[in-house]
Amino acid sequence: MKRVVSVMAMLGLGLTALLAHAAAPVPDPAASWNHLWRDVLIDLFIIGAVFLSAGLYWVFKYRATREGQVGEGPQLTKLAAIGFAVIPAFLFMADDFYLAAKGWTVWNEYRNVPRNAVEVKVTGSMWTWSFEYENGVTTIFDPDSKTGDGLVVPVGKPVVLRMNSVDVVHSFFLPEHRVKEDLMPGRVTYLWFQPKAVGETIATCAEYCGNRHSFMWTKVKAVPQAEFDQWLANMKQGGKGA
Amino acid sequence: MSTASSGFKLSEWIFTTDHKRIGILYLIGSIAAFAVAGIMALLIRIEQMSPGATIVSDVYTGGEQYNVWLYFHGAAMILGFLIPGLTGFAANYLIPLMIGAKDVAFPRINALSVWLFWAGIVLALLTFVVPDKPDVMWTGYPPYSIKTGGNLALYVFTVHLIGFSSILASVNFLVTIIYMRAPGMGWMQLNMFIWGCFTALIIQLVFVPVLAAAVTLLLFDRYLGTHFYDPANGGDVLLYQNLFWFYSHPAVYVIFLPAMGIFYEIYATMAKNRIFNYKAAVYGMIGIVLVSGEVWVHHLYYSGMPDWIRIGQMVTTLLISVPVGLMTISLFGTLYRGAITFNIPMYYGVAALYLLLIGGLTGIPLAMTVMSVHLGETSFVHAHFHFIMGIFAAFSVFAAVDFWFPKISGRMLHEGRAKIGFWLNFIGVNVTFWPLFIIGVDGMPRRYWDYSQFPAYFGNYHKVATIGAFIVATGMIITISNWLLSAVSGAKASNNPWGSKSLEWTHTETPPGPGNFPQDVVLDGNWSPYNYSK
Ligand code: HEM
Ligand SMILES: [Cu+2]
Ligand SMILES: [Cu+2]
Questions:
Q1: Which residues of B touch A95 (CB under 8 A)?
Q2: Is the pLDDT confidence value at A240 over 60?
Q3: Cα(B73) to centroid of ligand 1, in Å?
Q4: Looking at the 3D structure of chain A, how many domains does it have?
Q5: Domain tally, chain B
Q6: Between A and B, how many residue pairs show a Cβ–Cβ distance under 8 A?
Q7: Residue whose CA is closest, atom 28 of ligand 1?
Q8: Is the beta carbon of B386 within 6 A of some atom in ligand 1?
Q9: Which residues of chain B have pLDDT under 70?
Q10: Which of B524, B531, B522, B526 has its CA nearest to residue B501?
Q11: What is the mean pLDDT of residues A41-64?
């Protein structure tokens, strides 16, 4: 019990530290996510280890050794009973608020779209994604033939997606960027991400949408800004994509 | 079995109003649902073993087959196995016995409940017969469920039948617990299992009607041309999801609370100990009832809900750790200074300790809005809810059958075979679900049968998971056949083989006769189902 107390007290202090923590200059939600994930794992690991070792230790220590033996678990006094409820309750709450505060900070990064973001309209339909750029260029990717450009984005600039579905609920999931948001008819939802390196990743549908749900994915290609501008201009003239 | 004195008569079972027989009928139905849904799980796992079409016909139409397996697996495991296994079988068999009552308050309504449940099971099984097989998943989200060619009515009517059955059962058991306790039995003397049922049934009574309404509107939209969920005609596309989870999150407590109750009984009896801080655990259970209705948006964290509610319900969801934590401390604390005997119910009990931690703790990142924006709808979620429901709660049903087996059947369970079954089950579930946590964090979506767009190593993890599923299947075949064998050929059981202090062991015959108690039960303020040390 003592160990739990000290661990929880440390977590409580973490909350104070958090308030002093200044926001990073260039927001990068995926990096913040990874960082928070590590913190959460440590938190869970500590709680799990405390409970599991106590439980297993007692399981081995308190085996019955003779016939007819009975347990001698404590009959708690009123004060002890309240203490054993209220103190852990506050420790759990401290951890909850600590995690909630951290989670909220990163969440704000996820929801506040940087002003310089490139905007792309995403339309989901059973079972393709199509993308429309600010200059009217539209692209799609065909998962069967693996042709088409899919989503092309410039490295180093935030990208915001404004999304809508023409039929059922879909979800645009970018595993590398640690983000997803549903698309549905009648509403426009959004998400944004920060492409950091040149290369190809994927986005894939994460809300069940029927027969070809598993195949509803698209290439996401991050290219240098100059190449992106070039590509967009070419596409505008009806030229071939990258 | 049970109360039959002059051999087996089918009509006696069909027309029975005896809560013990009704409990057994629930058990048979729910194990049948578990078996068929389990076979579906194997098909799903074989298909996922490698990317591309493994056993489905081809990559273009394969989804039509796979999605029906997945629909049936999810719907039958929850509506057909866990809820009826806990609030049908265990609640029926045990509530009157534990509170010293001769039967439930309304025995004939009880009979109606069980047959409505059986009708629900039959309707669900029609899935495999109708030409337009339902493929709406157990969640049935519109607009997909309205647009698909799959049969939606079958889903809706199954929910109606089983829902109606649960509402009747809730009223029946709540009245029974409130009014039919043995004279002298105060609220703070109740078995933890009774508290688990009491709180679960309140949740069921309040929330099932919401689900029934939600799915009925689906039916109207699909077949009668209404537009409740259709935004193009003034409806709301998210309304269904909100109503569905307003019921379905609390529904996990309808499963969780009686499951915890079962493990408290096993711990107390096998450790011959009092429940550690009994009152804190009871208030924890009541606390769950109070918060259970304010957390449903954690299933809609990335569904376009307003930001403020996504954050508000992150806080309420995280706070569930308070009542659950208190219950957990009481459970673990019951071992403290106990005198523990290890037999098959206690094997499941010790496993529960680990399963509760893994299942519970992995829920914490999912409760955090921003974490869930990546982890949601991946196989991380899939592994999380299997640990807490598919394993912890399912194990509670198996443990309940093992623990009360002598009372129900009058015979002892064959321990050796049960232990082989246990180890296969326990090892198998770990082999199945740990790989899914790992690739879930790397982005493996759930409800996918092809995953060629992902790195090739995902396939290796899926293969391991499939091997695990077959280990579980072997364990379950041994477990279930051991029940059947032991029920006919096990050694005769005494009235109280575990030396328990609880009424169903101390005051009844084995198996209990009609009316349960040879003498009326009268208790005093010192009685407790857990007073071993006095
Ligand atoms: C060890 C036995 C089991 C195995 C191997 C197993 C396996 C699976 C698999 C492979 C999926 C599909 C994952 C996906 O594609 O997203 C699944 C889904 C599911 N399982 Fe199980 N399962 C087992 C037991 C259970 C039990 C006992 C329950 C009871 C609650 C359960 C409830 C569910 C639910 C609710 C779903 C989600 C269905 C949906 O996505 O609509 N499973 N299971
Ligand atoms: Cu989709
Ligand atoms: Cu929930």
A1: 321
A2: no
A3: 6
A4: 2
A5: 1
A6: 246
A7: B390
A8: yes
A9: 1-6, 534
A10: B531
A11: 96
A101 interfaces chain B, CB cutoff of 8 Å: no
Q: Which domain holds residue A105?
A: 28-37+77-112
Question: Would you say the CB of residue B137 lies under 6 angstroms from ligand 1?
Answer: yes
Q: Which of B47, B56, B68, B77 to mutate for ligand 1's pocket (most ligand atoms within 8 Å of CB)? A: B77
Which atom of ligand 1 is the closest one to the Cα of B433?
5
Q: Using CA coordinates, name the residue in chain A closest to B139.
A: A208
The more confidently predicted of residues A10 and B24 is: B24
What is the whole-number distance in angstroms between the Cα of residue B41 and the centre of ligand 1? Answer: 6
Residue A137 in domain: yes
B5 occurs within a structural domain: no
Q: For residue A223, which phi and psi values (nearest 5 degrees)?
A: -130, 160
Predicted confidence band of residue A17 (pLDDT cuts 50, 70, 90): very low
A93 C-alpha vs ligand 2 centroid, how far in Å?
38
Split at pLDDT 50, 70, 90, the class of A242 is very low
**Residue carrying structure tokens 């016939």:** A67
Residue A26's pLDDT band (cuts 50, 70, 90)? confident
Has residue A48 been placed in a domain?
A: no
Share of chain A above pLDDT 90, in %: 85
Q: Whose CA is nearest to atom 22 of ligand 1?
A: B41
Chain B, 372-391: which have a CB under 8 Å from a chain A CB? Answer: 373-374, 376-378
Q: Is the pLDDT of residue A25 over 70?
A: no
Does the CB atom of residue B390 touch ligand 1 within 6 A? yes
Task: Give the burial class of A200: count Cβ atoms within 10 A of its Cβ; 0-12 exposed, 13-18 middle, 19 or more buried.
Answer: exposed
Q: Is the ipTM of this complex over 0.95?
A: no
Structure tokens at A141: 């990717």
Inter-chain touch B370–A106, beta carbons under 8 Å: yes
Cα A41 from chain centroid?
14
Stated as kind and residue range, the H or E segment containing B420 is: helix B415-441
The answer to whether A211 touches B67, Cβ cutoff 8 Å, is yes
Instruction: Look at residues B363, B388, B483 and name the one whose alpha carbon lies nearest to residue B30.
Output: B483
Q: What CATH number does the domain containing B187 carry?
A: 1.20.210.10
pLDDT given at position B8:
81
Check: CB of residue B466 under 8 Å from CB of residue B419: no
Q: State chain A's mean pLDDT as an integer.
A: 90
Q: Tell me the residues of chain A between 61 and 90 that have a Cβ less than 8 Å away from chain B.
A: 62-65, 69-76, 81, 84-85, 88-89
Are the beta carbons of B120 and B26 closer than 8 angstroms?
Answer: no
Other CB atoms within 10 Å distance of the CB of residue B484 = 9
Pairing relationship of beta strands A189-193 and A159-165 according to DSSP bridges: antiparallel
- Cβ–Cβ of B448/A214 closer than 8 Å? yes
- Domain harbouring A125, CATH code: 2.60.40.420
Residue A141 lies in a domain: yes
The answer, yes or no, to whether residue A3 has pLDDT greater than 90, is no
Residue B122 domain-assigned?
Answer: yes
Instruction: Quickly state the pLDDT bin for A27 (edges 50, 70, 90).
Output: confident
Average pLDDT over residues A181-209: 96
Residues 6+ apart with CB under 8 A from A31: none
- Report the predicted TM-score, pTM, of the whole model to 2 decimal places: 0.93
- Whole-number pLDDT of residue B59: 87
B456 in A contact zone (CB under 8 Å): no
Q: Could you tell me what percent of chain A has a pLDDT over 70?
A: 88
B78 lines ligand 1 (CB under 6 A): yes
